[in-house]
Amino acid sequence: MTIFSKIIQGIIPCYKIAETDKVLVFLDAFPVLRGHTLIVPKVEIDYVYDLPDELLAEMHLLAKRIAIAIKAYTACVRVSVLIAGFEVPHAHIHLLPTNEMSDIQFSKKIKFTHEEFIEIANGIKSFL
Questions:
Q1: Which residue of 26, 60, 61, 93 is 20 to 30 Å from 52, comparing CA positions?
Q2: pLDDT in tens, 14-73
Q3: pLDDT per residue as tens digits for the range 91-120
Q4: Among candidates 117, 128, 109, 13, which has minimal Cα distance to 67?
């Protein structure tokens, strides 16, 4: 069972942004940037392009909605989308509020307090 499956099942808490029957959206616990968000299918499939077409489409359409909210909340230049698939063996999409290409550095993590995570999650949700 992946860490994402444990989050989906409520075993591990998260800072939830949105949820559908098939997808969970939450803040990355080890963010690269303020507002770094993950779009995760509730089914545990490792490789994103092994997902059924309908589920992949739902994830991307939800990512668009969330990206618009992240951009409004953070006032970033754009929300970058990244699918790498190496961190956790469970398909997921990263949404990263960026102002320039050099903002995307996964070797650099930011730490937030519980209260800051709640503020960020509520801020993004306020634009949904």
A1: 26
A2: 999 999 999 999 999 999 999 999 999 999 999 999 999 999 999 999 999 999 999 999
A3: 999 999 999 999 998 888 999 999 999 999
A4: 128
Which tokens sit at 104?
């995307």
Tell me the backbone φ, ψ of residue 34, rounded to 5 degrees: -65, 120
Other Cβ atoms less than 10 A from the Cβ of 50: the count is 9
Q: Cβ distance 63 to 39 under 8 Å?
A: yes
Domain covering 3-125: architecture = 2-Layer Sandwich (3.30)
Which of 79, 74, 73, 119 is closest to 95 using CA atoms?
Answer: 79
Using a cut of 0.85, tell me whether the model's pTM lies above it. yes
